[in-house]
């Protein structure tokens, strides 16, 4: 996380929670894209 300024403990915890949810979603999108890409690659010989 990168930021300028000061956060209260509550604001920090809220930001951290939001970041964790976003990174989990990004990870899932990337995994789905890789699975789709490699699933298409296995059909080369057809």
Task: Walk me through this protein's architecture.
The chain is mainly α and 46 residues long. The longest helix has 33 residues. The N and C termini lie far apart (46 Å). The model has no long low-confidence stretch (mean pLDDT 87).
Topology:
Elements: H1 9-41
Short description:
By secondary structure, the chain is mainly alpha-helical. It contains one helix and no strands.
Task: Output the keywords.
single chain, 46 residues, mainly alpha, 1 helix, 72% helix
| Share of helical residues | over 70%
Query: In what range is the share of β-strand residues?
Result: under 5%
Which regions contain 5 or more consecutive residues with pLDDT less than 50? none
Largest sheet: none
Anisotropy-based shape: rod-shaped
Round the mean pLDDT to the nearest integer and report it: 87
What's the total count of β strands? 0
What is the end-to-end distance?
46 Å
Structural class: mainly alpha
From the alpha carbons, calculate the radius of gyration and give it in angstroms: 18 Å
**With helices defined by DSSP (H or I, 4 residues minimum), what is the helix count?**
1
> How are helices and strands ordered from N to C?
H
């Amino acid at each position: 996380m990168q930021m300028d300024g000061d956060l209260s403990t509550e604001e920090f915890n809220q930001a951290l929670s939001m970041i964790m949810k976003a990174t989990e979603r990004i990870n899932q999108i990337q995994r789905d894209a890789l699975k789709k890409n490699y699933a298409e690659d296995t059909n080369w010989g057809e």
